[in-house]
Amino acid sequence: MLIRIFILTILLLLAMSPPSIANELLIIAAKNYSEKHINKKKITNIFLRKQLINQQGKRWVPVNLNPQHPLRMVFSELFFDQQPEEMDNFWNIKYFQGFSPPYVVNSQEAMLRFVVSTPNAIGYVSPCFVNENVKVIFKIRIKAKMGFKSQCK
Prior knowledge:
Layout: H1 2-16, E1 24-30, H2 40-47, E2 61-65, H3 70-80, H4 88-96, E3 103-105, H5 108-117, E4 121-125, E5 134-141
Parallel strand pairs: 2-3, 2-4
Antiparallel strand pairs: 1-4, 1-5
């Protein structure tokens, strides 16, 4: 009887434990980032180049992973409800209005280097890539149905 209670207690604790952080996408900025209020809508507008200036009057520098990167696909789905290639038409129109799309890097390591070395840069990584040189400014849960597997070591 005591063993059953112990097993049930363990199962209950496991069911109540928070979800793994590997199922999150983290929006990052340099560690000296000081913007007060950031939310999903604002991040979307920054990456769509609809909001160009931050609270300090400095120009945002959004950066994406390459369009084939699995985390970029998740980011695009979460923030734009589209895949990266579906946004080509949007960026073609924006380009002729004088707006360039966000910079593109090829890896999460390159994303970290870019964000750390570029004033006012904003990007995204998996939780296991975060280090002391960046500040996590927003977290969003990755839906299980998206099938994303973290590339953590």
